[in-house]
Amino acid sequence: MKKLNAKATRLRQQGMGKRPNKTEKLNHSEEELLWENGSLGNHSPVALTNANVKCLSEQMGLRGRQDYCDAYVEEFILREHDDGLESIVFNENSTKTQSGGLRVAKRTTRQVMWSTDGGPRDPVKLFKLWLSKRPQPMRNQGPLYLTIIQRPKNDDVWYTKVRMGQNTIGKVMPRMTASLESSTAKKLTNHSRRKTVIQKLKSAGQPRYKIKEITGHASEAYLNDYDVISEE
Q1: Integer CA distances (angstroms), 98 to 25, 182, 216, in order
Q2: 3-state DSSP percent of the chain in helix, strand and coil, to 5
Q3: What residue ranges define each of the domains in the chain, with the CATH number in brackets?
Q4: Which residue from 148, 143, 145 is spatially nearest to 159, judged by alpha carbons?
Q5: pLDDT grade, residue 57 (50/70/90)?
Q6: pLDDT (mean) for 32-50
């Protein structure tokens, strides 16, 4: 039995486990390429949306299209701190994993996204810019994800008043990573971002209960499927 378990472990590490078609993670080099080739950034509506998908997944533990479709601007609160830093606090609404019965269960810990160096990759700066590019009446309210204007007539408004469709949200990661050579060999979906975050937290030695608080998993047992990430 021990030999069989050892062999099964080796096969899973080679991507031949119980779910050979499961979503894969992004490594550090691939993420850097996305910034360098303009797939992530603040220079266009698509790049800005992609960057915020990345930041919200990493900092808030948002899931795939379910969380993104359900999110509203009103759930994200900007706070300014005495030390000059800023943060975005996520007051989560109910989600498919957390809701049940007549009572709505939410994450036990509020998710917070902190500002960093104020540079072009600062998550709070990117989030504020993202909201500022919405139509004026919807900069403080409404669905978080709005349809992108592919060719904006001016630099003030990059998004329409229409909620982004579920199918479009579901294709954010595949389209974002289409320029990567590895995308032809990997199955990359919106869940890849979430998987990458969990594996980074594991590699950093974060306890399972802390990871669960960030990701919103109903049980720590669900973290068993996430292997240790390789930052190559």
Answers
A1: 24, 34, 7
A2: 45, 10, 45
A3: 23-93+106-215 (1.10.443.10)
A4: 148
A5: confident
A6: 94
CA 115 to chain CA centroid, Å, is 16
pLDDT over 70 at 177, yes or no: yes
In a 13 Å sphere around the CA of 135, the CA atoms on its Cβ side amount to 15
Structural contact between residues 35 and 64, judged by C-beta atoms closer than 8 angstroms: no
Question: What residues form DSSP beta bridges with 113?
Answer: 88
Distance CA 127, CA 122 (A): 9
| Residue 101: per-residue pLDDT | 41
End-to-end alpha carbon distance in the chain? 33
pLDDT at 124 over 90: yes
Q: What is the CA radius of gyration of the chain?
A: 19
Q: Is the pLDDT of residue 78 over 60?
A: yes
DSSP 84-148: S-EEEEE-----TTTEETTEE---SS-EEEE--SSSTT-HHHHHHHHHHTS-GGGSSSSBSSEEE
Residues 199, 227 contacting (CB under 8 angstroms)? yes
Work out the mean pLDDT of the chain and round it to a whole number: 76
Alpha carbons 185 and 165: distance in angstroms, whole number? 27
